[in-house]
Amino acid sequence: MSTLRRGEDGEEGRFYLCTRNGEFKKTRWTEGGVERTRGELDAALRRYKQLAKALRECEARREETRNALVARDAALKASEARLEDMLQRTVDALVLIHERDEKRKPRQQPQPVKESEATNMNTTTPVEEKVELIMKTIVGPLLDGVGTTKTNTNVRKTAAVKPVKVKRSRPSKAKQQQQQQQVAEPVAS
């Protein structure tokens, strides 16, 4: 019976058919009862080598992509840490500025208020003053025209009440004759 053996010439991937008497036939190989020529075997070997090369390239690209993702993740974490550090420094600087300004403010002694000034004095707090200023400068112009009777002349007036015309029915002929008789009677008398 025939067996498959690697060729003795040492070529990678070349197989030859070994017959019962020990001779090697280099031209044909039976695979599952189907004869394959040496050319078909070489073409299959070339396809295998191409696929193996493509697989190695894919694995190399996958490794490069993984390394790039790891590097990008590390860069993002570093930039996030820098931003947090900058934010913390800014907050600390603002706190120091506020504390310095508080120390620089002179302590004002409350002065006695005259009675005439006390009645005219506005009792609003600084926060209320800011709210009033915001209302006057921002909210006020937005509310101009709200609740007024200004109307757009281009808009069809659907809510306007139209005068209703009352149809007067004609008096019947009998009523007309009565009215004519009443008018005629005073003239005759």
List the SSEs and their pairings:
Elements (H helix, E strand, L loop, with lengths): L2 E4 L8 E4 L5 E2 L2 E4 L2 E4 H67 L10 H6 L5 H18 L29 H16 L1
Antiparallel strand pairs: 1-2, 2-3, 4-5
Task: Give an account of the 3D structure.
β1 (3-6) and β2 form a beta hairpin. The protein has a domain at 3-104. Helix content is 57%, strand content 10%. It has four helices and five strands; from the N terminus they run βββββαααα. The chain has 189 residues and is mainly α. It is flat, with a radius of gyration of 54 Å. Keywords: Coiled coil.
Task: Give short descriptive properties of this protein.
coiled coil, flat, disordered N terminus, 4 helices, three-stranded antiparallel β-sheet, 189 residues, mainly alpha, two-stranded antiparallel ribbon
Rg value:
54 Å
Computed structural class: mainly alpha
The secondary-structure element order is EEEEEHHHH
Number of strands: 5
Largest sheet: 3 strands, antiparallel
Distance between the termini: 158 Å
Spatially, the strands of the biggest sheet line up as 1-2-3
Q: Strand content of the residues, in percent?
A: 5-15%
Backbone shape: flat
Helix amount, in percent?
55-70%
Number of helices: 4
- Give the low-confidence spans: 1-14
Give the averaged pLDDT, no decimals: 70
